Amino acid sequence: MRQAVLGRSGIAVSEVGLGCMTLPTDRLAAVRILREAVDLGIRFFDTADLYGQGLNEEIVGEALAPVRSQVVIATKVGNRFEPGKPGWTWDPSPAYIERAIEDSLRRLRTDYIDLYQLHGGTMDDPFDDIVELMERFVEKGVIRAWGISSIRPNVIQRYLMGSNLATIMMQYSLLDRRPEEWFAAIEAKGVRVIARGPVASGWLTGKKVPQPGDTYLGYGADDLARAPQVLREVAPDRTPAQAAIQFSTAPGAVCCAIPGASRAEQLRENAEAGTLPPLTETELERLRAAYPAKVYTEHRPT
Where do the NADP-dependent oxidoreductase domain residues begin and end (predicted)? Predict the structure, then answer.
């Protein structure tokens, strides 16, 4: 498995990680997938306190406790929930974050978190207080690095210009190339992107068949139907899922991708994308030509 670095943090991770949100809710099945991921060379695991109202963190903590020193665990905070009650509210206040990190540490069975991420963000958040708190967590050794998970350009710019964050998690795939507009600025600051959704909710794998009326970010059913075929034609020695994952890790601003997996077979296919030769520039250009980049139209800097 190729290795990468989480931005200016210097933390080494596998180029293909595991997004844990889609793990089975069956604890034993999920633990088996997580432990097989380690066996396959995956060293980066991303969860959030919101997933399953803490259950996902508990499962990740249980599975990875025996190999804690060998793996990098990321989790997120900011979406406040009441256990047993549906829904959540956005709460980026330092007081809430301080309580939430203690709960995450307990559920993850660890005394430190490798990457702690603000799970969203708005321009109305107490920016200076959040940055100060995250840096204090780093100084205390509670976290090794911090970042944000956001697709709002104005929020991203604010953190890039005014903090020492290490990473920005963004949805990025062949069907969602909107982040590319901001890659140069992100890379120039020594920050790196964690690409979530590299297979575009399954539309790029060939295993999800679009029906009339299906859409994804402005693409219709015909566009969605041809995407896996384009990937097969451009990279016939890979599965569409593997080519899609490699497309998402190709830009210099991207350090790693975190596809999810609900089955062991899916996990193995995804992990292999980190061992196969990268896509060539010619192959990448063919894919870019097939699905040109769009831009974010909302939450742009003024």
Answer: 16-290
Pairing mode of beta strands 79-80, 89-90: antiparallel
Strands 113-118 and 143-149, bridge-based pairing: parallel
Cβ atoms of 60 and 260 closer than 8 Å? no
Token pair for residue 276? 């196969």
Residue 20's DSSP bridge partners are none
CB 88 within 8 Å of CB 81: yes
**Domain carrying residue 195:** 3-290
In a domain, 204, yes or no: yes
State the CATH number of the domain containing residue 58. Answer: 3.20.20.100
Q: Which residues are catalytic?
A: 51
Domain-located, residue 300: no
Where residue 87 falls (left for φ over 0; alpha for ψ -120 to 50; beta otherwise) is: left
Extended strands (E) in 130-214: 143-149, 167-171, 192-196
Rg value, the chain, Cα: 19
| 89 within some domain | yes
**Quick one: pLDDT at residue 25?**
87
Low-confidence ranges of the chain (pLDDT < 50): none
Instruction: Flag whether the pTM goes above 0.70.
Output: yes
User: Is 302 part of any domain?
Assistant: no
Q: What is the model's pLDDT at position 270?
A: 98
pLDDT of res. 183: 98
Q: For 219-228, how does the pLDDT look when each residue is reduced to its tens digit (9 = 90+)? A: 999 999 999 9
